[in-house]
Design a protein that fits this description.
Strand 1 and strand 2 form a beta hairpin. Helix 2 crosses helix 7, helix 9 crosses helix 14 and helix 13 crosses helix 14. Strands 1-2 form a two-stranded antiparallel ribbon. A two-stranded antiparallel sheet has the order 3-4. It is globular, with a radius of gyration of 22 Å. The protein contains 16 helices and four strands. With 425 residues, the protein is mainly alpha-helical. The chain folds into three domains: 168 residues, Cytochrome Bc1 Complex, Chain D, domain 2; 148 residues, Cytochrome Bc1 Complex, Chain D, domain 2 (Orthogonal Bundle); 44 residues, no CATH class. The structure holds heme C (2 copies). The site of one heme C has 29 residues, from helix 3, helix 4, helix 7 and helix 11.
Length: 425
């Protein structure tokens, strides 16, 4: 319930200040400058080692074919603050190419400094996602792009038309839309252009890809052992692979949702689930988006969309490419290093979580095993992020030497705990 109270025009820049119950208009905007579309923001080549060519073609929807002009228009929009209510926030503010299209924060900060409940995933290789968002609440990139624009703590527009009107007022955009789509600026075309740019962000060409292509020396022995562990004792392939019986070297995801015990202890999810019922039944996409990003119902994950008890606190299995440079980790950004992530899996975090995925269990991995899996994960860093990767690995390693808050060796080497039963209705 926002009322638009001040409409100021400063040097041709319209600034809309929002006031009303529950928003943060009184706080000073703390947005850093919007990143520029430098070399790391350019479309990825299909010639990269490791690109799954057929899959890449198959994910282009027939009603939104890729053209260089459309991709360029989408790129311009992705970096344009004018899509937000006060001009300060672009898609790139939270999906910064210098940080592999993430923001490096535990949870994202949007317009007027509003802090959300979720960690910003990378846009690199998002074209391969069967669904978008941690809970899969958007089916396509087109559908996804509309939601941050109108979310009150992300880009803060009252509706998509407000953003369209802003863009339609710019001569350069009028010409570009007319060239690309043969018609005036519209909401659906704006979303098509952004999605088309996102579908150009393919990122492979990692040491691991060269190893799979036959260069035995592309990765070290630790990473090789880590890849073995990933598919065997460490059980990562139970979820980070399209099938469990065939090694999957493309995107390390299963297009599914699992409760792996993240944030579950912090929240009383059973009580939250009861509260969410009404919301889920309403089928209102903007309301669900609000709940996921602005309330503690965020912890319910996929349940907010399906309203099925087994989906309580389950989240989408993320692609692991470039994971070294897309931290902090998990849907709530709660883990700082890949060692912390490994410690979480090693103890099979399950206490107090009746909905924990059955594939979570203590792994009995040694310190060397853990280092090896981290070395494998680091080998998934595409060449364009090599420099950031080297620096980040050193930073995380140094941190892991002094603090391992998730490590619990007794549990990692102990029996699988008996899981509590889900609470009754
Ligand atoms: C204020 C920060 C912020 C802004 C601005 C923002 N995003 Fe995001 N983005 C996020 C967060 C946080 C998530 C995860 C939210 C969730 O899963 O509930 C996300 C998720 C996504 C995803 C899903 C990726 C996946 O792996 O599921 C895509 C695609 C995406 N954003 C694209 C965009 C586009 C396009 C824009 C501009 C129109 C945009 N974002 C603006 C923070 C932001
Ligand atoms: C039961 C399924 C399952 C298993 C087994 C599993 N994962 Fe995951 N993984 C997920 C899901 C689901 C998420 C997101 C969970 C969340 O954020 O709440 C995730 C998140 C991650 C992340 C964080 C990525 C990011 O962008 O934040 C990393 C890294 C990761 N997994 C690596 C591994 C490794 C390594 C193993 C094996 C030791 C493993 N996973 C085993 C399902 C699984």
């Amino acid at each position: 319930m926002h009322t638009r109270s001040v409409l100021a025009c400063v040097g041709g820049l319209i600034m809309i200040v929002l006031e009303g119950a529950g928003n943060t208009a009184s706080k000073k905007a703390t947005q850093p400058p919007i990143p520029r579309a430098g070399p790391l923001a350019q479309p990825g080549s299909l010639q990269q080692v490791g690109v799954p060519t057929d899959q890449t073609r198959a994910v282009i929807p027939p009603d939104n074919p890729q053209t260089p002009e459309k991709i360029a228009l989408g790129q311009k929009l992705f970096f344009d603050g004018r899509l937000s209510a006060d001009g300060t926030v672009a898609c790139a503010s939270c999906h910064n190419p210098e940080r592999a299209f993430t923001d490096g924060k535990p949870t994202s900060v949007g317009i007027h400094g509003g802090v959300g409940q979720r960690n910003a995933p990378t846009i690199l290789n998002a074209l391969y996602n069967k669904t978008q968002f941690w809970d899969g609440r958007a089916k396509t990139l087109e559908e996804q792009a509309a939601l941050p624009i109108v979310n009150a703590i992300e880009m803060g527009q009252p509706n998509l038309n407000a953003a369209v009107a802003r863009i339609a007022g710019v001569a350069e955009y009028q010409q570009a839309f007319s060239r690309v789509f043969g018609r005036p600026v519209s909401g659906p075309d704006l979303l098509r252009a952004i999605a088309s740019y996102e579908r150009s962000l393919i990122s492979f060409n990692s040491p691991f890809d060269r190893f799979i292509a036959g260069n035995e020396n592309a990765i070290g022995d630790a990473a090789k052992r880590g890849w073995e562990l990933f598919n065997t004792r460490a059980r990562c392939n139970k979820c980070h692979a399209l099938t469990e019986d065939k090694r999957d070297v493309t995107n390390f995801k299963d297009d599914d949702f699992h409760n792996i015990g993240i944030g579950i202890i912090k929240h009383n999810v059973a009580a939250l689930a009861r509260k969410a019922e009404q919301l889920v039944n309403s089928g209102d996409a903007a309301a669900v988006d609000r709940a996921a990003l602005q309330t503690n119902m965020s912890a319910l994950g996929r349940f907010l969309i399906t309203h099925k008890a087994p989906d309580i606190a389950s989240f989408k299995t993320p692609n692991l490419r470039n994971v070294l440079v897309t931290g902090p980790y998990f849907h709530d950004g709660s883990q700082v290093t890949l060692w912390d992530v490994m410690d979480h899996y090693n103890k099979g975090d399950g206490v107090q979580d009746p909905w924990l995925d059955e594939d979570m269990q203590p792994l009995a991995l040694t310190e060397r095993d853990i280092d090896d899996v981290v070395a494998f994960l680091a080998s998934l860093t595409s060449d364009e992020y090599k420099k950031q990767g080297v620096k980040e690995l050193a930073r995380q390693r140094a941190l892991s030497r002094t603090q391992r808050p998730q490590r619990d060796t007794a549990r990692a080497f102990g029996p699988k705990p008996v899981q509590p039963k889900p609470p009754g209705p």
